[in-house]
Amino acid sequence: MSDEPDDSPGVLVFPPLLFVLCVGVGFAAYLIRPSRFGMALGLRGTGVIFIFAAGALALWAQRTMKAAGTNIRPDLPATAIVSAGPFAWSRNPLYLSLIAIYAGIGIMLASKTFLAFLVPLALVLHFGVVLREERYLDAKFGDVYRAYKARVRRWV
Asked: Can you give the pTM of this predicted structure?
């Protein structure tokens, strides 16, 4: 057994897995009770825009993290504070993109029941992932992280 402390934030759940679970449960709820908003087809098309914009944001954030030489997965050690690209205006662009993609699907479906699961997705991301990562980064990077945190909002 190693005396080394675990160099990871100890997130509650792997964020992409959480997203997939919420999408699955949301679709199941939608199929069981397809409660819909009275939304014009053109407005539902904004869901597609959300999905594509959020997907582009996620790709940009991933490339920025790779270029900085740090791990993207939250169960692996962070090696740097990334403050370039989308991280210059949000500390969590990858998680923001998961929320926006989920919202986009719900808007596309115009489904109240699907969108209801956006709340648990956002809450678990916030309390089970983001806050844990913030504590970890603060402990690991100290003043460098605190200065970044003071400059850039958590979400948007």
From this structure: 0.91
